[in-house]
What does this fold into?
Amino acid sequence: MLAHKGTVTLETERLILRRFVLDDAQAMFRNWASDSEVNKYLTWATHTSVSASQAVIESWLPLYEKPSHYSWAIVLKEIGEPIGSIAAVEQRDTTKMVHIGYGIGQTWWNKGYMTEALRELIRFFFEEVGINRIESCHDTRNPNSGKVMLKCGMQIEGTMRQNDINNQGICDTVRYALLAEDYFAKK
It folds into this structure.
């Protein structure tokens, strides 16, 4: 049985992972949601206004009532505002699996922030929720996303041909996973 806790606040050296609030709309729009380069390999459209970001956040807020809902704003402590998001975009309680998806503003690419956020979610899901398998994937044309997964100890399981769709159309994806037994063996 999983010990669902919902989107609780988590903290790392440089980040606070917390629930989105309506006041995050401006930062979300400015820092990543309005950037087509950030959204290139994601499934949602680039936001064209702050009101679009606000509408998305409004749609997310009621979901926080569910203890099995996990969606965090990635807040950089240094500036005190969200620079991206990370969430369990799919989960199966029967197999104790979560699939993690994430995005971060270009200004903060290649600085280790997403690795730091994903590493903390991996710890949280294995140690506090009791997840058995954490997985994620990326479009083959976006290898930097895979580098984040590898740095967090996830292993490549293979490339799935034409199995997903994003803002580039139907795409091949590389799937990564980490099992609880492997995580705890390395601790």
